[in-house]
Structures are given as C-alpha cells and as structure tokens.
Write a structure and sequence with these properties.
With 389 residues, the protein is an alpha+beta fold. It has one domain: Beta-lactamase (3-Layer(aba) Sandwich). It contains 12 helices and 11 strands. Strand 1 and strand 2 form a beta hairpin. Helix 2 runs antiparallel to helix 12 (363-375) and helix 3 (85-98) packs across helix 6. The longest helix is centred in the first third of the chain and has 18 residues, at 23-40. The chain starts with a helix and ends in a 14-residue tail after the last helix.
C-alpha cells in the first residue's frame, strides 16, 4: 500500500506544470515590447496574460478602462470579446451533438427552413451542413448587416426576423466545403439552432451550460449588469489624434451568438484552462469531453483534399503541424485574441480597448507573433517557431 501511495505521489508530481527556466527573461522582453507598442500606438487600455497548466504565469495591465472617470485597467476590467464568442457557440453545438440532439452533417435547412429564401441558382443550399457553418466553408456571405455608406444604420440586426428579411438578398457564393470564407451569419444560424433544440434563449443556454459549470461568474452578454458596471471597459477610436469613447455598452441583438460576449481576463483564463484540460472540478469536466474538444481542433478537409485553416469554430494558425489553436475578436473599438497549446497545456489571452491595426507592427500583431515564436515554444520538448495568422 505504501509503495502504491509513493508511486501515485510521483505520478502527480510529474504532472505538475514546470515553468521553463528561461520563461521570466523571455516574458520580460515580450512584455516590455507590448507595453511600448500600446503606449506608442495610443491604445487607451489593454491586458495580456499567459498561463501554464493551473498556474497563471504572467498578467500585464496597462492604461485606462475609462478616461472620463480616470479608472485604470485592473484585474477585474471587463472587455468585449466579439468573435471569440463563436467558440462558445461551437462548444454548445458539440454539447447538443453529444447528447443526441443533432449531427454535424445534417443540412442546416432541416432546422432553419427560412434559409430556402436564399438565392441559390446552383442548388447548393441543401449541401450546407452544420459542419460547414462551423468551419466557415458554407458559402454564406461574411457580413451580418450588408448596408454601407455614411448614413447612420443599426450596429447589428436586433431580431431574427430582420436577418430573415435579408436572406433573399443573400446567395451561396461557392460550393459548400470547397474553400474557406469567414461567415458571421453562418454562426448566427448555429445560434438559432441552439435555441430551437434547447428551448432556451442563446444567452440562457450558454449561462447554464458553459459559464456556470466553468465558474465564469462575471461573464455575460450585451448590456452590463448593474453590479459589474464599475468594471466595464469603455472603447475608443482615435480621431484626429485624440481618443473618442464609443460607450460602455451596446446590444449585439440576434448576432449575440456571433459576438456578444463580455468578461474579465480571469474568467477567460478559466475558459482557456478548460480547453486544455487543466481546469479542476467535476462540473468543468461535464461541459464537453476531451475527445470532443480534440475533434474541434482537427482541420476540416476541403473537397479538393486540402486542409482548411479552421477546425470546428477554431482557427488553426499553423495547420495540422502546429498545436496552437485560437480565435480573434474585433467589434466596436475592441480587439482581442485567445490561443492555447493543448499539448503543453498553456495559453494566452489579450484584449485592447482602442481601435488599431492587426498588422505585423501593431501591438496586436507583433505581440501575438512574439508569443507564437518565443513564448509558446518554451514549453515544448523540441523548440521550433510557430507562425500564425
């Protein structure tokens, strides 16, 4: 019995996350560059964090959550995560799949017959499956609100009926499964399926089946609860060299499943730890099996035999040869990214509350690339650069 206990203790000890000896020095350099970029590019406020296993190794906070009140960014600051919401939608679909409510290769029109109104001269609509929507290979358009011009128009459609009214002005642009083309409406269609099959509003379903079991107690959709308003970040555009506030809150309407999430960094770290299997507790394990999470990370095979740059709602930055998976977000003047390496159980999260570019020289782009090239490889047995998108 004693030997068995010793063996078990050694097994636990070997599983404890070990921080590489070079991490602190590497992080100091990356963080200093990140801070310099944030300040030089007039980003009002930003946060950046990295974890390994159950341990948060770094958390950078810089600038202001709100300029008028001189409220600085802190650990409780709540950011808007925009399209990163899509990954929660994907997990919800997988939950329903695993509970026998749907299959991924069923036509979407089986659940949403309203889509019959889409212009479909080549008869491709019946080929569009839930899997195509999850991998952005469906052929649906990219934007949710197709109007343009300088006149005011709503930020997003607020009701399902408004999106349905636009369907006759939409078309299937290519044969489903033949290539990637990012589609916001495609994810909204999945959100609608979640509501139909569960009987809950999308927000209620995610609160009950993801936020609650993962312990994301300060995550929510759209308008901020009164008790969290003191932590909500504003968002800013730079106009003639000066930051202009966009307002604390906005309603993403029917597009909530596509981009309505708000949460502080610690809640997002809980989510990322769940994704790599290091979030403790039986309730977290009940959200989705490790096998289904792994399935979401596999590249989709296009009809020409090539691999797409998407798994099931996840970006695959380096293809199947690089274990990093993640997603980006951008809405109003917020931008963000999350990435994890499930093989080493580490990951990162970053948020910016000011409009900025995503190119190689931007705070967003350069920080992300340095994480790919310099920080993530520290945790792998064989270090090699990982180039991402």
């Amino acid at each position: 019995m004693l030997q068995r206990g010793i063996a078990f203790s050694l097994l636990i000890a070997s599983a404890v996350a070990q921080k590489p000896a070079t991490f602190d020095a590497t992080w100091r350099d990356v963080a200093a560059d990140y801070r310099e970029l944030v300040e030089s590019q007039q980003i009002v406020g930003s946060s950046l964090a990295f974890f390994h296993g159950t341990e948060r190794l770094a958390f950078e906070m810089i600038g202001f959550a709100d300029l008028d009140s001189e409220r600085r960014v802190d650990e409780d600051t709540i950011y808007h995560w925009a399209s990163i919401t899509k990954t929660f939608t994907g997990i919800a679909i997988m939950q329903l799949r695993d509970r026998g409510k749907l299959t991924l290769d069923e036509p979407i029109v089986r659940y949403l017959p309203e889509l019959r109104a889409v212009h479909d001269p080549k008869g491709w609509l019946d080929k569009v499956t839930l899997r195509h929507l999850m991998t952005h290979t469906s052929g649906f358009r990219g934007r949710t609100w197709p109007w343009g011009g300088e006149d005011w128009h709503p930020h997003e459609p607020t009701e399902w009926s408004q999106l349905v009214a636009m369907l006759p002005y939409s078309k299937i642009a290519f044969e489903p499964g033949s290539k990637n083309s990012y589609s916001n409406p495609g994810i909204i269609f999945l959100g609608r399926v979640i509501e139909i099959l569960s009987g809950d509003d999308y927000e209620v379903y995610v609160q009950k089946n993801l936020f609650a079991p993962l312990g994301m107690t300060r995550a929510y959709f759209d308008y901020t609860p009164y008790h969290l308003l003191a932590d909500r970040s504003n968002n800013y555009s730079i106009v003639r060299g000066e930051p202009v506030a966009g307002g604390l809150d906005f309603d993403t309407g029917i597009t909530v499943s596509n981009g309505g999430l708000n949460a502080p960094i610690p809640d997002m770290l809980r989510y990322l730890r769940f994704l790599v299997g290091s979030l403790e507790g039986e309730s977290a394990k009940s959200v989705l099996s490790a096998e289904s999470l792994a399935e979401m990370r596999r590249p989709f095979l296009l009809t020409d035999g090539s691999e797409s740059g998407m798994g099931l709602t996840w970006f695959l930055p380096g293809g199947s040869g690089v274990p990093i998976v993640g997603h980006t977000g951008g809405q109003k003047s917020f931008s963000s990214f999350v990435y994890v390496d499930p093989t080493t159980r580490c990951g990162c999260v970053a948020a910016f509350n000011t409009t900025g570019g995503r190119g190689k020289g931007s705070a967003f782009g350069r920080t992300r690339q340095r994480l790919f090239d310099e920080v993530f490889p520290l945790f792998r047995p064989a270090t090699k650069p990982a180039h991402g998108k």
